[in-house]
């Protein structure tokens, strides 16, 4: 199954034992955690030289969830943390709770879509994506994720139409051209795919996926300099 992963997410690791220590204010407490682990300054990673202490981070987020079990911001950050630390089942549990609360935030819906895609449940992914479009119709990400679902199902024309909507509402040009390349390659039109991958690289020289696919097609003689 071909799947476009669109992902805009954080990362972390879980903890079995939680020491309960009430915090003063949920928003202040969460802001302190965000600052402490520099969650706003760069993509969170649990491995490598720039890794943070994800075990400690999840420990603190778990405590906040105990104190404020229906706070959607805390639940959202915690779900992403659990997901990126490899604890998809725990992340799914938190996402399920968020989806049952009124007005779940867009980032929670995005993660719910990704989890459903990874589980092969494209019907559920499509249902959540449609809800995200209905509620956040001027945001690019739900259209991009809907494009990924139709791409995974082999419905390339519909996928391309959703991709155009994502572009209209501001998706980054590197993402736009990369996904156009994927659709072109699947149709198949490898020469056109090369062009789109090259465009994606032009807008983001660090786009590793576009670079890898362009290199593969170049080796096969499909790309002209």
UniProtKB/TrEMBL annotation:
What keywords are annotated for this sequence in UniProt?
A: Signal
What species does this protein belong to?
A: Pseudoalteromonas agarivorans
Provide the protein name.
Answer: TPR repeat-containing protein
The residues the entry assigns to the signal sequence are 1-18
InterPro entries linked: TPR-like_helical_dom_sf (IPR011990)
UniProt key word Metal-binding? no
